[in-house]
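Anyone up for a design puzzle?
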């Protein structure tokens, strides 16, 4: 497989002689090929390139490349919100418990709402019982993305102690028809998971 540097060099050289830019991004396709071939090393190398890091982090999470988790953790401090969000998502998918402290801080303090939401869901996927109280408290967040990420996170955690808070939230949502209409399936799914009515993640299809 061509290295990312070689692919970028090829693209730059080709564009010098063409009036129109090359359609598509060969670097993206190289990263996708690396994911499909299980080439963790290529994707880890791409974490050092700000242009490619978002895609590389997502693919590492999808591959469940747990060996890459220590390289992803520093990206939680990236100045770029989308990179922080992607890193949190990947660490949740990888179940990387050492990142819990950073994710807890991000879930409560990050200045960007969707980054907080990613951190909340990641904590649920990691599934440490000590994080249940935080997720329950975030059901009352004034930020709707954080609120519903807490719902999803509690569903991912599948801790019976989260069942009653989820039921109370369902009761509250009946007073907000718009939000209830948009998120009722998310809430019911979380309740079902917590009650054990849905299969464990490894038993569920991925798309």
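Challenge accepted. My sequence:
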């Amino acid at each position: 497989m061509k290295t990312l540097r070689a692919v970028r060099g090829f693209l730059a050289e080709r564009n010098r002689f063409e009036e129109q830019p090359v359609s598509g991004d060969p670097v993206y396709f190289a990263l996708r090929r690396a994911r499909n071939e299980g080439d963790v090393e290529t994707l880890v190398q791409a974490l050092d390139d700000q242009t490619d890091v978002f895609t590389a982090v997502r693919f590492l999470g999808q591959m469940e490349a747990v060996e890459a988790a220590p390289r992803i953790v520093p990206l939680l401090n990236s100045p770029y919100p989308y990179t922080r969000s992607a890193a949190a998502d990947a660490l949740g998918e990888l179940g990387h418990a050492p990142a819990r402290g950073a994710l807890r801080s991000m879930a409560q303090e990050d200045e960007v709402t969707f980054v907080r939401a990613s951190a909340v869901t990641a904590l649920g996927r990691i599934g440490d019982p000590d994080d249940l109280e935080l997720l329950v408290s975030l059901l009352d967040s004034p930020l709707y993305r954080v609120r519903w990420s807490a719902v999803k996170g509690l569903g991912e955690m599948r801790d019976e102690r989260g069942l009653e808070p989820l039921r109370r939230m369902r009761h509250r949502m009946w007073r907000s028809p718009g939000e209830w209409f948009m998120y009722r399936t998310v809430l019911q799914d979380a309740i079902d998971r917590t009650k054990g009515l849905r299969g464990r993640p490894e038993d569920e299809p991925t798309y």
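A detail worth pointing out: The CA atoms of residues 40 and 65 lie 7 Å apart.
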